[in-house]
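pasting for ref. prot 1 ->
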Amino acid sequence: MTLYRFEAFAASGQTVAGTIEAESLPTALSLLRQRGISPYRAEPAASQHLFSHFTPRGGGAGLEWRTRIIRQLATLLAAGITLDRALRILTVETARQREQGILSKVLDKVSSGQSLSAALASASSQFKADEIGLIRAGEQSGSLVPVLEELSTLLEKRLQLRGKLTSALVYPAFLLALAPISLIIIATVLVPNIAPLFEHSGAAMPFALWAMITVSDEFRARGLIWLICAGAVCVVMVLLLRQDSTKAKIRHLASRLPLIGVITRRTAASRICRTLGSLLRSGAALQSALSAVVEVTSALDSKDRLRAARDAVTRGEKLATALKKVPALSPSALQMIAIGEETNRLDHMLLHVAETEEKALASYIDRLMALLVPVLTVAMGLFVGGIVMSIMRAILSVNELVTR
């Protein structure tokens, strides 16, 4: 059981805060709703650690903020408050100036007659394309509030998964950072004291020692030039990574890698099924829901195949048959979708498939991280230890020459 800290709207409209004990975050949210209050923020009580006090106040609007705003907006709209008034309330309650400015722009756009999705798309680049696409589909189907609730739940799951990944990657990141630090210490402290031994004795210098001395001499001679070149390369890489075409190529390459490909496939399957199931549960037509799913998919090949599936469904083909060419969906997922069509519970079955994929993804990440930590530990030990051992063997050979 985990203790969660929450903030919520009571039935009277007042804001309440407290803690609740539950097995998971979705369970905690469900228990709070059973008590008659509408939570718009919930997180593990232990997450308020020391580093949270050092969060930059002027930073950009991240996933946590978007999750909280969508949850609050869904709660206010469900209580009968108009959209412009709800945005005005959220703007006043927001503490950070950057986020307050984003909401002010969205409020101005909505007040001038734009839809919420159009206002979010034009006023801010912080909201992702799939989030805006889902909101747009909810507006078109006349079910904005249920879609906002489903979207907030989806973002909460993403936030929970990201926190899990971040926690799991702390130790591997520490190991990866420790390796270059160890090499710098060896190159700056150990190598300068050892190099004269080989120069005076005439013994062959080991390759690792020679490479460190060469790099060290080169950096002393032209260090500024190398730093400028490294900075230029970093700037070019950042500019390339901001382009949609580069992002699409990276996703396509990542999907073909053995380990990362499983993560990308399950993530895409969960996103497709949850979006489609949420829209169908909210009353959207199947064709319009499929059009929205095309927008929330990042891979270009999946977009084309989802468009083809939408066209096939429009011609009267079964959804499970039309989705067979979508690479993210496994045969078992397609079978569950077919059962949902036969039993007239397609929305329920799609959400069940999404939940299954999310659980499988979490389990896969746990196993991957459990394997990655010892592998990285051994690899770093062999790498640094191999360099040290080669230098020590060379020192011993020099001593043998001296004694002779």
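and prot 2 ->
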Amino acid sequence: MPPGDVVDKALSARPRKWLVTGAAGFIGSHLVETLLARGQAVVGLDDFSNGHRRNLEDVRAAVSAEQWGRFRLLEADIRDAGACREASAGVELVLHQAALGSVPKSIADPLRWHSVNATGSLNVFLSARDAGVQRVVYASSSSVYGDDPELPRREARTGRPLSPYASSKAGMELDAQVMSSCYGLQAIGLRYFNVFGPRQDPEGAYAAVVPQWTFAMLAGLPTAINGDGETSRDFCYVANVVQANLLAALTPEPEAVNRVYNIGAGARTSLNELHRMLCALVQPFATAALSAPLQRELRAGDVRHSHADISLARELLGYRPEFDVRRGLELTVGWYAARRAQK
């Protein structure tokens, strides 16, 4: 049975109450939309330090009034233990997406990254434990692999973290393991590999490369590549990540619980290849010919190559990426072009 059918069957069998932290964020808002569209009740927790109200407005426009009525937003920081307890009350399943991203920003402000990603996540875990939540699925990162040279990345082997962001995610994984072993909390971690798609913020010096380049190309602005362009990443369309979260939350298999999984497309794309694909997809929407990218120095803390071995997620969760990089880029460019045309 296709993964989407498995999820739909499980959700239609019984509505549940979910907590999505980081609900106004890029990934969080897609999770909220998918759950509401399938008749679920959702509590959203977000302090809007990274998320945007416009993302939730997009969700509201995409679902029916009845479905939107099943959503409740709590505006608060996950570092607020009381807010986490309030958000967890009566919840069966938690999808924990709230975090601070960006490797360069974490290098500039390591204490804040630790307090949000590590201490804040521990608040979420403890609140879930105290509320009797059935399971927490939490967003980890491929950054935990650090300087390990092995490709593709396999869950059992990690290297030294190369940034405070990476170490905060590694610490979160350790806390989740302790919550499981000491308190019996069911927890599943998902190590995301370079997620992209509609609603991802294209602005700012440290924006992710897909939205940043797409936005720049549509606006006729120059783009830049860090290094020689042969740095590669496992770019994963956001719908694949939504699928993984719901499969992890709903799996009935005991063997699948209290583990971490790689969630990517299972393929590598260089920055040069990515730039060529985006140029071809953006050109029909552009008003002028697109220029070659500028070259900049590699950023501190960045790894050279990243590639997910997704066999464990495929075996134990039934994860099957339904969107490859090109199809995901087509949908992403179309969304940004439509959004730009509305302005």
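The chain has one domain: 3-342.
The first helix runs from residue 3 to 13.
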